[in-house]
Amino acid sequence: MTPGSEPHLPFPRRVLGWIWTHKVYTALLLLFALVLAELATIPWFDVARMKTENPAGTALMRQRAAEAEAAGKPYRITQKWISLSRIPKHVVDAVVVAEDGTFFTHGGVDWFEVRESLEKDIQERRAARGASTITQQVAKNLFLSTSKDPVRKVKELVITFLLEKELAKDRILEIYLNIVEWGPGVFGVEAASETYFGTHAENLTLDEGARLAAVIPSPLRHRPDGDGKYVLRRRGIVLGRMEARNMLSARPGGGVTLPADSGVTARDSAAIPPDERGETAGEDTTEIDEGRANGL
């Protein structure tokens, strides 16, 4: 080394020196690399194939199976695919009014519900209200997990917009009704119909459809064939919303009277915002959040 010349530092030390003197650039580069890594995990081609192919399984199914294995418990998945055209309209309507009242008009995200949800969460200092649309639930159940970390939510939004871009609304709804969790190992409306009511989905009654819709926010805690307070109250709310939207008047014989044991009249139900998903007015939603598989 000649006098006055800089010492030749090893490459690792030079890199560390550059990082130390360029902290902002380094942070931006790391952030960019993380974004690229996450984007690489987005199922771009899988979504496009679902125009004509039914998904063989879902991330939620695999998660539940792994949880059961870790707990040393047996776990069996029951799912039978059924086309949307074979599912009674009153069942489809019940699920839509229960989970996503503006499904056919929004672009994947209900921004009004997102704002309302954030305001309530901040007010109560907990995740008190769900705001996930049916498309978001499809994105999460198919490809992600029930984790609530911010990165997962961002990926969910990207996949949600991709689903809305690539698939028709009816196709999204068909996929949802065939993959939604309705109990331990029970996925999809056909499996739920056979498990709880001993019939095929195409034979479901209005009451049975409303019961199935009622337990979607908390399928691991409540059975649709049960008569607990939670199930009966939410069933009444679902029926009330359907009646308020004239979804029952088109049925043979005209409208229906809400079950006397529901605790909710048609007028009461109509007054509840139709997109207050996963929550009943005056109801503690802690239980819903703890067991929720299909919402936020």
What does this structure look like?
By secondary structure, this protein is an all-alpha fold. It has one domain: Biosynthetic peptidoglycan transglycosylase-like (Penicillin binding protein transpeptidase fold). The chain has helices at residues 11-21, 23-39, 44-49, 59-70, 89-99, 111-124, 134-143, 150-166, 169-179, 189-197, 206-214, 229-244, 266-271, 286-291. Helix 5 (89-99) runs parallel beside helix 11 and helix 11 packs across helix 12. It is elongated and about 80 Å long. It starts with 10 loop residues before the first helix and ends in a 5-residue tail after the last helix.
**Number of helices, counting only DSSP H or I runs of 4 residues or more:** 14
CATH architecture: Orthogonal Bundle
Structural class: mainly alpha
* Beta-strand residue percentage: under 5%
Order of helices and strands: HHHHHHHHHHHHHH
Domain count: the total is 1
Number-wise, the strands total: 0
Question: In one word, what is the shape?
Answer: elongated
What is the CATH C-level name?
Mainly Alpha
